[in-house]
Amino acid sequence: MIYLCxxxxxxFLYAFFGWCCECIYCSFGDKKVVNRGFLNGPICPIYGFGAxxxxxxxxxxxxxxxxxxxxxxxxxxxxxxVTSVILEFLFHSTWWDYSNxxxxxxxxxxLKNSILFGMMSxxxxxxxxxxxxxxxxxxxxxxxxxxxxxxxxxxxxxxSITLNxxxxxxxxxxxxxxxxxxxxxxxxxxxxxxxxxENILKSIYNFRQKDDKLKFKINDIYSKLVNIKKKSKVQRxxxxxxxxxxxxxxxxxxxxxxxxxxxxxx
Length: 266
Prior knowledge:
This protein is mainly alpha-helical. The protein has helices spanning about 1-30, 45-60, 65-90, 110-135, 140-185, 195-210, 215-230, 235-240, 250-260, and strands at about 95, 105, 110, 245. The chain folds into two domains: about 1-140, no CATH class; about 155-260, no CATH class. It is built from nine helices and four strands, in the order αααβββαααααβα. The longest helix is centred in the middle third of the chain and has 45 residues, at about 140-185. The radius of gyration is 23 Å and the shape is elongated. It starts with a helix and ends with a helix.
């Protein structure tokens, strides 16, 4: 039981370290603070699983940097590829896309990231994990049980909130595409990059000046759009964390939704 609890704590620690690395790396690239991660809290589970795989499978090769680097590169790349496939299957969306990078495989993994993961594997096994083991071993057993219980409870709640938010995101995409079709039927066209509340109001106002008979229909469409934008804090965070996300069936609606959630107009 103690052995299991220690590895659960390892998972959470490395998931947190991974979240920190992702945020720092992406924030430098985007030149702004970015809260990365599938979940709302400060953890990236893929890093936790990746670290555990490396620890379990490469523990006998500590000191042999070449093997740790090579095997770490391969193992983490496989994990990233499989995770991408699973997320696409579950949510009908691609969450990241490396198609514009050299030496990528189906846009799911790329050589640059794989090399970085290989280097991180060496640092993990040679420097970080020995310190983490010492830290965890010093924790009182009773405190360890309580801490692990609270962390498991936390991640269950976080996963529930995230899944609920993604379900609402799917519903919003459906409603948004309905609204877009309604706008097209009355010859109102707004490009996705100009899809802000101000531009929508301007288009609707101009159209109503020409045809007042459709004002109730137009007001209904606008109400739909306003409701789509409401209570979108978590969806906004997810779309900011994964700016290259694409939806397999509703990608047009996703492009418009991204622009709507960028708009700060109330």
